[in-house]
Every structure is written in structure tokens, then in C-alpha cells.
Amino acid sequence: MLFDPDNKIIKLCVEGMDQEGLGNGEEAYRLFLEAWKDASDDLEKFLAAHYVARHQRSFIDKLQWDKIALNFAMKIDDENVRASYPSLYLNIAKGYEELHDNENALKNYQLGLSFTGFLMDDSYGRMIKSGIMAGIEREIGTQNPHDL
């Protein structure tokens, strides 16, 4: 597995998640930005960008950070990272949906769906797939998403 618990960037992200859990959003964001600044490889940049995205105040900024996270994730040849693609595409699709760019929203929901085979069949995997399917249904109306 690529996720080394002793890695400085992973430690910063875990600390940031802890701060999120305590309701300290500004401190969490500071830690995620520090992780981004110190990230030195694709995995570290992917992780840091993913968490920085969560703290953006505008849909455009969040979408940009989600795209950055996906771009770095796609450079990593690891099944554990590929399992994050559906979630990343879901986030990107939601960003486009918020910006009323239905064409790009649908495209990214469909891309997310194409990678759901990497998800585990657990509550998280089912939640992500459900979010993707709901997004597709919103974007294409009453058509069956399996017919795409």
C-alpha cells in the first residue's frame, strides 16, 4: 500500500482531518495548505489537493482543486488510488452542476460511473456510486443511466 503513516504529508492531512472533526476549519485548511506546499511527489500532491479542495469557499475554486487532485491521482499506478477516481469525478461533476454546466457535469458523472468497479462493495462505495447515479439521473432526466 502506498499510504505510509509516517509520511509528513499524510500526517499533516490526518491532523487536518482531526481539526475538521473538532470544528476547527481554519486550522484544518492551514494544515492542508502546508501539506500542499510541502508535497514532493504525485501521491502527496493528490492527497493534499483533495483536502485543500474541501475548504474552498467558491465552487470555481473547489472545482479547480478537485481537478488538480484528479490529475495527480491519475499519474499514480496503484489500485488503491484508482479507487478514489469515482469520488473525485463525483466532486468534479458536482462542481460543474453548481456552475450550471450540465454537459460537463454529466460527462464527469459518467466518468465516475465508469470507475466504480474499483470501489469496494461497502457503505462508502455504495454511497459514492449512489451519488454518481443520482447526479446522472438529475442531468439526463428520466432516462435510464444504464442505457447510456
Q: How does this structure look, described?
A:
This protein has 148 residues and is mostly helical. It has 2 domains: 51 residues, no CATH class; 67 residues, no CATH class. Helix content is 70%, strand content 0%. It is built from 8 helices and no strands. Helix 6 packs antiparallel against helix 7. The protein is globular, with a radius of gyration of 16 Å. The N and C termini lie far apart (34 Å). The model has no long low-confidence stretch (mean pLDDT 92).
Tell me the series of helices and strands, N- to C-terminal.
Answer: HHHHHHHH
Count up the domains: 2
Measured distance between first and last alpha carbons: 34 Å
Strand count: 0
H/I helix tally:
8
What is the structural class?
A: mainly alpha
What is the arithmetic mean of pLDDT? Answer: 92
- Rg over CA atoms: 16 Å
Strand content: under 5%
What is the topology?
Blueprint: H1 8-21, H2 25-38, H3 42-53, H4 59-73, H5 79-82, H6 85-98, H7 102-114, H8 123-140
Helix pairs in contact: 1-2, 1-3, 2-3, 3-4, 4-6, 6-7, 6-8, 7-8
List keywords for this structure.
mainly alpha, 70% helix, 148 residues, 2 domains
Summarize this, please?
This protein is mostly helical and 148 residues long. The protein has helices at 8-21, 25-38, 42-53, 59-73, 79-82, 85-98, 102-114, 123-140.
